[in-house]
Amino acid sequence: MAEIAKLSVKDLSDGMIVVRFDKTGVVYSHYGLPMSDAAFTKGELIRQGVDYAYVRIDALAAADATVKKYTSVPSVVDEFYLKDAVFRKPDEHDLPMLKDIVGMANMHKTTETITNKLLTDTKFGGLVDTKTTGGLVSDVLANCLESPVAFTSVARMKNKDSYTYSHSINVAILALSVGRRLQMSKRELYELAFAALMHDVGKMKIPEAVLNKKAVLNGDEKAYIKRHPEFGYDMLSRDRTVGVDTLMGVYSHHERADGSGYPGGLLDAHTHKCAKIISLADTYDAMTSDTPYHVAIPPTTAIAKIFKMAGKQFNEKLTEIFISTVGLYPASALVILNTNELAIVVEVQDDIRRPVLLVISDAKHNPTPPTLLDLAKPAAMGRQIVSTVNPLPLGIDPNAIIDWYSTKSVE
Question: Is the distance from CB of 201 to CB of 195 less than 8 angstroms?
């Protein structure tokens, strides 16, 4: 676990690893990496109005006296710490029509195609096309702001054959949905989305034989894969137009609140806000997706696991916000009601216990034409969700039913 020391910029020297500054928006391309030209860098930082830097104590061996001078400094409280966060709740205006979900689903497929090409080109060229990525991020952000609830719903899209690309999009969707609830500015949302979309770009430097290996990885292979945040940071930092928030979101998305993450072993208070959001979205989507080395678990099971990690792996307040955004019963979950009817979750609402459903059976589980039911409305007549149900043994494909109903509703 890495501890952090607060130093005056004037005391920085070669070999020190800076994790953040006392001022946001600073142009600095070596976060998390050993400083190699301190004399020049200090002048640039002072010119940008920076007074203090936060550096990793375990990387101060070259300046032992400085370590002793600063180890007694209390850990800095991250300016983005979410203990008292105020977040925006959905309102009636947010509720989308099913046609909105269809449009978002089409956006998801288009974005996946573009992301596929971006990451593939990066794999062979070694550089990220930040201009094209920026345009894609702008389009995704516009969709998020236009219809936020429908936007979140398309994260149910799972493509087993192109996990890397659909995963990147889903993480961006989930991260943006949380960022909007936190009332982040449009610039902040842009950088968050950019980081989320590119959070695994460093994996393009890892051989496919290692990345997609179904057998247990050996120690060297695990260590190499754990370097992907560093690889991604290095690839993106070559372009000076990429913002600090984006860089730190990519570099730190595997840090954990209790310091058990990597690559820096940073505590919650030292980890960038974008990285905290992305880590939650990344974990949730990975849990609920089939991969070469993992079988998907139901969304509600993933939510329960993440809830147990609150305050340990993840920031407690941010976890609460994430769960309220995704919902206890995420879109496409199959549920059983107190009337014994089967239904599929279509939209998550402010009261996460009462989503909008498609009822697909009668009380004896005989199939019926899908019918919309909003559990938050009086017309629901006291119907409530009792539990989620595994759709596989029943031969039910919730996504296919939602897609079919969505198409019928706009014909």
Answer: no
pLDDT per position in the chain (411 positions), as tens? 346 678 888 888 888 888 777 776 566 656 666 777 777 788 878 877 888 888 876 645 444 443 334 333 333 333 333 333 333 444 434 434 445 555 666 666 777 777 777 777 777 666 777 777 778 778 777 766 665 555 555 555 555 545 656 788 889 888 988 998 888 888 899 899 899 988 988 888 888 888 777 788 888 888 888 999 988 888 888 888 888 889 999 999 999 999 899 888 888 888 899 999 999 999 998 898 877 677 888 777 888 889 889 989 999 989 988 887 777 777 788 888 989 899 999 887 767 778 899 999 999 999 999 999 999 898 898 898 887 787 888 888 888 888 788 776 555
In angstroms, how far is the first alpha carbon of the chain from the final one? Answer: 57
Q: In what order do the strands lie in the sheet with 52-56?
A: 4-8, 52-56, 18-21
Contact (CB, 8 A) for 75 and 4: yes
Largest CA distance in the chain: 76
pTM over 0.70: no
Phi/psi at 342 (5° precision): -95, 145
Closest to 19 measured CA to CA, from 81, 66, 83, 76: 76
Q: Which of 295, 233, 301 is nearest to 262 (CA)?
A: 233
Q: Please state whether 293 falls in left (phi above 0), alpha (psi between -120 and 50) or beta.
A: alpha
Given the DSSP bridges, would you call strands 4-8 and 367-374 parallel, antiparallel or unpaired? Answer: unpaired
3-state secondary structure of 346: strand
Instruction: State the Cα–Cα distance between residues 155 and 399, nearest whole angstrom.
Output: 11
Sign of torsion over alpha carbons 20, 25, 28, 32: positive
- Residue of 86, 63, 83 whose CA lies nearest to 5: 63
| Cα(257)–Cα(246) distance, integer angstroms | 19
| Cis geometry, peptide bond prior to residue 263 (ω within 30 degrees of 0) | yes
Distant-in-sequence, close-in-space partners of 29: CB < 8 Å, separation ≥ 6: 237, 240, 247
